[in-house]
Amino acid sequence: MFKTTRRALMVSVLASGLMAALPVQQVLAGGEVTISHYFTGDLGLDGLKQIFAEFNKETGITVKDSPIGHEDFKTGILVRAAGGNLPDVFSYWAGAKTQFIINSKSLHPIDDMWKAADLDAIVAKPIADGATLYNGHRYLIPFGYHYAGIFYNKKILQKAGITEMPKTWDEFKAMCDKLKAAGVTPIALGSKNRWPAQFWFDYLLLRTAGPEYRAKLMAGTASYTDPEVAQAMELWKQLLEAGDFTKTPNAYDWTDAADQVQRGEAAMTLMGTWITGYWNTNKFTDADYDFFEFPTVKEGVPRAAVGPVDGLVIAANAKNMEGAEKLLAFMISKPDVQAKWASIQGALSANEKVNPKTYTPVMQHALDVVKHAPAFAFNYDLATPPAVSEVGLSMFSQFLDNPGEVQSMLDQTQTAAAAAFKQ
Amino acid sequence: MEKDKTLWRVAMLIPPLAVFGILVVWPLFSSFYYSITNWNGFSADYRYVGFDNFLQIFHDPLFTRAAVNTVIWMLAAVIVPTGLGLVLALLIDSQVPGASVFKSIFYLPICLSAIVVGQIWVWIYQPDWGLLNTAINLVTGGNSHFAWLAKPGTALYAVIAAWSWQQTGLAMVIFLAGLTAIPPDLIEVCHIEGASSGQRIRQVVLPLLRPATVVVVALGVINSLKGFDILYIMTGGGPFNSSDTLAMHMYNESFKKYHMGYGSAISVVLFLIALAIIFAYFRQLRKVDEIYE
Fold it and tell me: Whole-model pTM?
């Protein structure tokens, strides 16, 4: 009945060609930005999808997302870099890790975008100075940051008769004794992935030797065999030997430690504010928990706050540089986007325009602590180069297993760290 | 006609050779190249450092520990599954009731990926509610919370146990195939001549299982050299590098410390070890072939 004539064939080919060209035209109008990140939790992924949809609505640019789990991201992004296959934008931790890839010329500076979006008026100054400036240029937008504090189970402390949170080291030790007398292990720690132990070293060193000395150690101009380091480790050792920590911390993850506190098997854990996101999803709300600052150990030493800054960076060879810069500006400069993201991640926003009332009371407290802290220090594995932090993190695990041999561990760490700094 | 055939053969060989070349040969030569540089994995700038990376191996205590662990891993990962596989094959071959069911059950783990096996055993070793401590506590009436994977003295051996659990099924099946090749008349003669079970196994079955044993051992060595994933998922080389093997050490140096040049040097050493073992294996295979020809 139907005859395929040459003309009909040509028409159909032309028509299908036009139809195929239509979506191409649409894509070209806005373009596409590729992104990889480590926010793979259910809430984080959903939140980002919503944010990317809003970005697409505003700019017409599509965001092609490839999330990777937090631990796998650390190596996954390196594999992509090694293959010259970095996405346009990727999440990264501000500090020594970012410095390392900048030194490798893998990132694109964003000074112009920073000025055009007037980010100086938006980003909190201590975070802007500490997390975004490298070799005199801006490279990273702080997408959110966390603060590490001692999070505790309110009921457990009440049961043990503790109503005042400790301000000094002696008060803290007395509190631990009181908890043990009430039959509760004072401190939960899950250092299976090593990094959760670092906050103890960070705070003990910062509270005894101060931020300046700690910065020297992180830069390789001070030594792990210095008395300052020995003193911090000695204080940690005393707690371990007094039975203040849960047993074999290296067998558990930080979420196990959070669960131990939630179940009341331990009273507190030194962790970042992301623990609030974890607890909230586990129906352990801020009516059940709170935190207090790491106590003063030595009078007169500035009480620095510790935490990581999650950032977004642009690859030096990004295919859609303009789109990538637009995405970064969108992510940091919209207070509603920042507020939503902060609430999902249990993070604090680096955008000063975000209304603090959008935070939970616990997060408002954390914001207040950071605002009044004389310094904000990155946690150990973000403060010292990756090759050195690998050595140090292993030393912390070894120390937790056998605190008695701390001196020889510090000697070995210094040898390995010195070699790593040389490379 | 013959020329056409040759052309077809060449044409058919090109796609697999191209895949092999891109995925195996090219990375192999890249590793050789990077092992003589100080590349960090990110930077486009790196320089030639000669044999510095190879010399560094001699001053690296973590390399020594990883090398010792690799030898332990290879020996145990070959001896244990081979021994257990042989025992299981002999038991199943002796027609115990339900032999075919046992055969399927013992073979099942080899169908699972090493990641799945690793995760199952992470749960088995969990200190508080893991199957192992629960069983020990039931039997002894104690209250053990021993952290098998978090203690430097047990971590490597705990992974070897998991690995052996998976690999035993493969050894068993190869030995069973070897047992079916033994002429039944020969076994019958043993019975008629009044040989005990022990004598029959020692003096007849085991010598005739030699070809199967060579295959099992060779596969065991090759698989153990590739045994990275199960270690990665169970301990990641920890605690504090105590269960590092050379493959794990190479990974940590390359991808955690960003010493891609040094990591490549370790991979070259590992490649040479594997090459020596495979060379020895082929020599042994030739000897076995000569015996049976």
Answer: 0.86
